[in-house]
Automatic annotation (TrEMBL):
This is DUF4249 domain-containing protein. InterPro entries: DUF4249. It comes from the Bacteria. The lineage of its organism: Bacteria, Pseudomonadati, Bacteroidota, Cytophagia, Cytophagales.
């Protein structure tokens, strides 16, 4: 009897709430645009590319605008200077520069009368002895197929940082949440890595896999940590979004801040065909 007595009241309350629904429009200001720099140099043959764009409004569904007509140079610690040429809108390529392990490189970008600089270096990198594959059955967390394993010695001496890139048939596996794989030698200094399983996959019979190990700087490692944290920052208990660090610095005090990263690395690679 109690159930029947209160049911009409609940229905009326529900109908009343449904009828009081308002649409609230929030006006989010666009904010000032910032220069975005994406550049990388390695010890492999060039050319090396620097990509320039600007930030876009938060709710924009358009591609970020490319920055054209900039003056872009890369100079090493021996004074060798390369003027980059714009090969397509917002993409600038080196001409003669070749990165070397142990050298330091300074990027300079001048656009709209403002100059921005960034610096990086190329660190030593260990060789990859070999790659292997292990077959995994399907589980709740992964698909069935072949997964790559890595064999090689980490270089003695603490302070090394690495990023591993995996390619399937010459296509980089670059899902930012699944395939961004980086680590340091805090707990494996000088050790031999036997069968380190790499997360990207699975691979199928007939695929060709290439693995690259990049020796990155400590600053670049910290940048990747922040980047991954922001990309995984969702759900009920997500923390407020914040800007990721940048090594792009404006030379003049009245210039708008820039964002992005200029990094360098030595690279070792190995290829394997999946049986």
């Amino acid at each position: 009897m109690k159930t029947h007595r209160f049911m009409p009241v609940l229905l009326v309350a529900g109908i009343g709430l449904a009828g009081c629904e308002d649409i609230v429009s929030v006006d989010v200001p666009d904010g000032a645009t910032q220069l975005v720099v994406d550049g990388w140099i390695t010890d492999q043959p060039g050319p090396y590319a620097v990509r320039l764009s600007t930030t876009a409004p938060y709710f924009s569904n358009q591609s970020t605008p490319r920055v054209q007509g900039a003056e872009v140079t890369i100079t090493d610690n021996n004074g060798v200077r390369d003027v980059l040429r714009e090969t397509e809108p917002g993409v600038y390529q080196s001409a003669t520069l070749r990165g070397k392990i142990g050298s330091t490189y300074t990027l300079s970008v001048t656009v709209a009368g403002q100059t921005y600089v960034a610096q990086t270096q190329i660190n030593r990198v260990p060789a990859i002895d070999s790659l292997g594959v292990v077959y995994r059955e399907e589980t709740d967390d992964q698909d069935a197929g072949y997964y790559l394993t890595y064999f090689g010695r980490e270089l003695p001496g603490r302070g090394d940082h690495y990023r591993i890139k995996v390619f399937r048939n010459d296509t980089l596996l670059n899902n930012p949440e699944l395939d961004l794989f980086f680590f340091n030698d805090d707990f494996l200094d000088g050790n031999y890595l036997t069968g380190l399983e790499l997360s990207p996959g699975p691979f199928r019979t007939g695929d060709r896999a290439r693995v690259e190990i990049h020796a990155i700087t400590a600053d670049t490692y910290g940048y990747l940590v922040e980047l991954q944290r922001q990309m995984r920052n969702d759900g009920l208990f997500a923390s407020p979004t914040e800007n990721v660090s940048t090594n792009i610095t404006a030379l003049s005090t009245n210039a708008r801040p820039a964002t992005g990263w200029f990094g360098g690395s030595a690279v070792q690679s190995k290829t394997i065909s999946i049986p």
